[in-house]
Amino acid sequence: MIQTTHLFPVLDEKLIELLASLEPEEWNRPTLARLWTVKDVAAHLLDGNVRGLSLARDGHRLAPDREIHSYPDLVGYLNQLNADWTRATRRLSPRVLTGLLQTTGREYADYLATLDPHADAIFPVAWAGESTSPNWFHVAREYTEKWHHQQQIREAVGREGIMTREFFYPFIATLMRGLPHAYRHTTAPAGTAVRVVVDEGIGGAWCVVRGEERWQLAGTPPGAVHATLVVPPGIAWRLYTKGMTPEAALSRVHAEGDEALARVALSLVAVMA
Length: 273
Known about the structure:
- 45% of the residues lie in helices and 9% in strands.
- Strand 1 (193-198) and strand 2 form a beta hairpin.
- The protein is α+β, with helices and mostly antiparallel strands and 273 residues long.
- It has ten helices and five strands; from the N terminus they run αααααααββββααβα.
- The protein has helices at 8-20, 38-57, 71-88, 94-112, 135-157, 165-175, 179-182, 233-239, 246-249, 259-263, and strands spanning 193-198, 204-210, 215-218, 227-230, 254-257.
- It has a five-stranded mixed beta sheet.
- It is globular.
- It starts with 7 loop residues before the first helix and ends in a 10-residue tail after the last helix.
- Pfam families: MDMPI_N.
């Protein structure tokens, strides 16, 4: 189990401090989030808070305006929701937006702390290929959303602050839970092991092993490691949240052993996209 609940108030406090320090022009700087500015990303973080409170805590659900039969259907629906919200919240001032983030962030963190970590979550972690997920994984997924969007803002305005062991390790450990799903179409003999290293003192190493029927995450490989991929943390967070393509990352990573097998790990996408 990856414990992240205690980090939400601390990470949110870092966000509020960051936003309060921005100059007016910095709110309009572009980010890795495609067409979104710093202000748009902040608004998206607000949406995460209020949508989570409304849906999960308050049981307020709005039926989709379309039929959803597949993962691409779900992604398309969520992308439209995100775009509609971001467009509407552009009328909010940075001061109002920051205040709302502070208030709702506190409420959302309080709500998440009440969940039984081992009970079934309201939504599964779809990017990990799960149809049912425990609450602790759902909460950790929410943490990765808050972490990587705040990091997008920090990169856009040149402010460091959360590329530390305290904040980064839970983020990357959660993302690595998606490795078996990334390898789902990769054929290999049972016992084949791939190691992914994202470290530099703030991350760690993870291993995915081919079982009789599917790939599984393993603490340590049962035998020899057949392929290793070393990804710098600064590349990993961009790559696995679709801020960088696998092709662009190739020259920044190092593969050992079966290089083709190692590079399958570049295809991991730990966001709904």
